[in-house]
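General statements about sequence and structure are easier to judge against a single worked case. In the encoding step, the backbone of a single protein was reduced to a row of integers, each denoting a local shape. The record that follows shows the chain in one-letter code together with its fold in token form.
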Amino acid sequence: MTAIRSPLLTAGYLGSQVTQLTRPLPLWPLHVLFTAFPLLWVLGVGAFAAPIAAAPMAMVMWRNTQRVQIPRGFLIWVLFLVFLFASATQLDTAPRMVGFAFRLMNYLGATIVFLYVYNCSMRTLPARRAAGLVTIFWLWVVIGGFLGVFFPGGSLSTPFEQILPGAISTNEFVGDLVHPKFAEIQEPWGSPTVFERPSAPFAYTNAWGSHYALLLPFVLLYALTAAKKWHRPVIALIALASLVPAFATLNRGMFLAIGFGLLYAALRFALRGHVRWLVAVCTLMMVGLGAAYLSGLSEVISTRTEYSTTNTGRAAIYQEAFLRTLNSPILGFGGPRPSLSLGISVGTQGHFWNVMFSFGFPALALFCLWLWSLAWRTRWAPSSMMWLHVVPVMALFMVFYYGLDGTQLVLIFMAAALGLRPPDAPEVRPVAPEPWLTGARPRQAVTGDE
């Protein structure tokens, strides 16, 4: 069979290894990550969902493949991980080592998910099915948002919290992860209003907002390609309802990211001559803006901004992050450190600044180059698959003010992996099954992909 090279792989940096899978990769690890996320959250390990799902993925790939396919340019990301590992030499306290270990697990987990999805056959995991899995995750995010709206003072005592040593569980950052709250309750000094901002099923409201923004393109992709037509009106109704917790977060960054992503998609569709796509995107934006105006959202955000130091604080912390990184430009500091002038930590107000301060300027250049390459190399995605390309494009915008090293990075990598997969899937050979790993029956030999 003549191999057909995807145009998404022609503009690369390194040659990819063309290999063969000995059996199709099972999808149950992805269900653990997305479908079973509420269970992980209730157990207190929702923040560790990526490494938990990545562990069996790595084992399955090791057992089920002769050699894992690697996309062109992947060495850029490997070099970034090298600098990340090396930055651990700059750690000086046990709590900082714990934080570094958490971030490292998430980076490695996202890496494994990326390779796993990239190696999944299009027959086993078509883009529609992948978008459906992520849409289930989006549904849990919306439900968590409503928990924060109706029960803002609620929280969970989790099993994982109970088994952790007291010295670890009492750490403020760890406590936020293993004892999840339904909302962040903020009382800015002098403000006449207490702001109850939904955060469940994540530790922070900004995490809810960043996930919601990155999930929207997947949801749109699934709504446009769902095999069962009744799914589409149901998703539309849930999306409309999701505006309630979305507006309650008062998350300006989320609204900016969604607006940027939709405007970019509208422009790309218009340049391709797809007027109906342009009309649909513009209609979606108008509905959102109209709902925001009628709900009085702008006035509430204005009130919060008036009494909050978030704007001036971010500008100051960004400047401090750059200036202090000059003292350790190659390896950074291994992780965030307390600010010298503000009551927050340097490297916690945007992933761009976190990578720079924590891992140094070379790691920052590699991270940005990798993220840019994912967006660039998926730019020719056809038809509705364009929404996969929109995800890394949005990440390029969000990286300056959102942390993206949790399941946000998994979503970015998953969208890119789905867009970068070559259309000529590896040949699948009949082999003896291992039910405990795959849960699948032996399959007939097939060649190619859908």
